[in-house]
Amino acid sequence: MTNFLKTLIPQDIAKGLYLTGQHFMRVFRTANRRKVPLHVVSEYPEVPAKVQPRFRGRLTLLKDEQGEIKCVCCLACEKICPTQVITIESGKKEGRKTKIPLRYDFEMERCIFCEFCVESCGFDSIILNHQFELAAYNREDFSIGMLGTSQNMFELTPVGRYSYSDSDKD
Ligand code: SF4
Ligand code: SF4
Q1: Overall average pLDDT of the 25-45 stretch
Q2: Spacing, Cα 109 to ligand 1 middle (Å)
Q3: CA–CA separation, 112 vs 105, rounded Å?
Q4: How many structural domains comprise the chain?
Q5: Separation between Cα atoms, residue 118 and residue 60, nearest integer Å
Q6: pLDDT, tens digit (0-9, with 9 covering 90-100), for 57-68
Q7: Atom of ligand 1 nearest to the CA of 84
Q8: What is the residue range of 18's domain?
Q9: CATH number, domain at 109?
Q10: Are 153 and 128 in contact (CB under 8 A)?
């Protein structure tokens, strides 16, 4: 009878199933104790992917609470950029004491995401956001500036919509 059972259920497979079951139960119990959801698969791209807080994505210009561009055109970021991908043209705006960029061009294709520009900015005017989907079909799509509606320094690039969620804005 024992031999018959051994033939019916090969021993090695039974051992394997037993070990898998043991491992599953251990993970299940640990997850419950720590109140960690067992569901660990990321549903990207349906749900935006979360990256680490220090992730370096695309360069973005920031505005203040009044909607004013924070950049004061000190040119520190332009000068420190090792690949020289930032070009700023400064100007004046009525009612504003500091300079304001008339142009802030960013050639993303040559950016190495070193974050030197952000570190050099003493006015917290720029960040590297959390966008990681930065691929594009045309070289022109890597040229980002202040003008335009879809490819400008304040907006997400269309290809980046899955790598960014509202909670990342904080
Ligand atoms: S991250 Fe580095 S390479 Fe990219 S724009 Fe800033 S300084 Fe230049
Ligand atoms: S370092 Fe900051 S304030 Fe100066 S030009 Fe660059 S973004 Fe503007």
Answers
A1: 71
A2: 11
A3: 16
A4: 2
A5: 10
A6: 889 888 888 888
A7: 8
A8: 2-33
A9: 3.30.70.3270
A10: no
